[in-house]
Amino acid sequence: MTRAALKARVERTVATVRVTDIHTHLYDPAFGDLLLWGIDDLLVYHYLVAEAFRHTDISYDKFWSLSKTQQADLIWDALFLQHSPISESCRGVLTTLNAFGLDVKKRDLPALRKWFAGQKPGKFVTRCMDLAGVEQIYMTNSPFDDIERPVWEKGFERDERFLAALRIDPLLLAWNDTSKKLGQWGYKVSSSLTPKTISQVRKFLCDWTQKMDAQYLMVSLPPDFNFPEANTCNRLLEEAVLPHCREFNLPFAVMPGVRRAVNPQLGLAGDGIGVSNMAAFNHLFAKYPENRFLATMLSRENQHELCVAARKFRNLHIFGCWWFTNVPHLIEEITRLRLELVGLSITPQHSDARVLDQIIYKWRHNKEIIGRVLVEKYEQLAATGWQPTSAEIERDVRDLFGGAFKKFCG
Ligand code: HDL
Ligand code: ZN
């Protein structure tokens, strides 16, 4: 295969591979309004809220009192009209609008709103997934969400394209409040972690794993998470969560590095970042070889040691350029590092989409970058005389966009 043919082959394979999106904040359409979509939700995405506040002196309270349309108007004006929309979050909105065939150069927000108003939610899900090349979406599902929980309790017919992941941050990070909630839900727990309480926490995990058909459990952790260390989080982790994951043969996803509410007035946009203590996770992965761990870390500074950890522990699968690392410069840096240091047993990206339409831009941007790195890697391979075949390239690319994750999940 000539260099040009190889490049074209890799680019086409990446462009056409069907994606499994292993972490999002999207919902099965059965959850109704919890599934966000359309131009106003795209514009009030918390990434854009944070950026817009830098260009306005409106008070936080005044902004939050505005309607979604008024918030979107303010963000459109600040980030698209008063300044060129070059940040990744702004560019993403335009990539998505362009993919729908909408003419963004007119900068006509009312016309855009009119087009979205004509879309039918049901068909729109399929349209977005087709434009994004996404065939499966993993949700983030929390029994602690007062809007989401009743929908699960009532039951609904699943859209098989949407899979569940059981999110347990409040269990591990806010036990005092959470133990009261579990008590209200009929679990016989006390605030102290007695054997009875631990067994009831496991019953809670069992009930919700089954109710959701959860494919993995997940938690985000603050940068100062430490292990081993005698604390409630670690006792719940070792005595309830990890045994539960072993019993149900489910991976446990750890997402370290988020410092919640560094600016509480920004709401969802107010979370910050910190460098995590990788030694804690090395101890965790080493102590529980029977558990399978997924991990993505929020800090750029943790990425190299996370790759080294993946080399040490085959029960660790690293994934995604999460949140503040989800920008082209770092996606390229981190993907290159992972391919060079770990190889193909990784999942380079997830979308973390909160608005359905975002999967279109997130995956177009991701594939452009990951494709570019892969072309270089296969060219370097060919330069040794090893000719990667089209079938081998297709196999590798399928692995990177969901296949390796599924093999790891067993
Ligand atoms: O904790 C998480 O899963 C994060 O992804 C947060 O939801 C964050 O607000 C986010 O959407 N990041 O992309
Ligand atoms: Zn997320």
Task: Describe the protein's topology.
Layout lengths: L2 H14 L2 E3 L17 H5 L2 H8 L6 H6 L2 H14 L6 H12 L9 H9 L3 H12 L1 E5 L9 H7 L7 E6 L1 H5 L1 H10 L10 H18 L1 E8 L10 H17 L3 E5 L1 E2 L12 E2 L4 H10 L5 E3 L7 H10 L3 E3 L9 H14 L16 H25 L7 H20 L1
Parallel strand pairs: 1-2, 2-3, 3-4, 4-5, 5-8, 8-9
Antiparallel strand pairs: 6-7
The structure holds D-arabinohydroxamic acid (HDL) and zinc ion.
Small-molecule binders: D-arabinohydroxamic acid, zinc ion
Helix and strand pattern? HEHHHHHHHEHEHHHEHEEEHEHEHHH
Helix content: 40-55%
Number of strands: 9
Query: In the CATH hierarchy, what is the superfamily of one domain?
Result: Metal-dependent hydrolases
Question: Helix tally?
Answer: 18
Which term fits the overall shape? globular
How much is the average pLDDT?
98
Would you tell me which CATH topology of one domain applies?
Answer: TIM Barrel
Q: Write down the Rg.
A: 22 Å
The main sheet comes to: 7 strands, parallel
Low-confidence stretches: none
Label the structural class.
alpha/beta
Second CATH tier, the architecture of one domain: Alpha-Beta Barrel
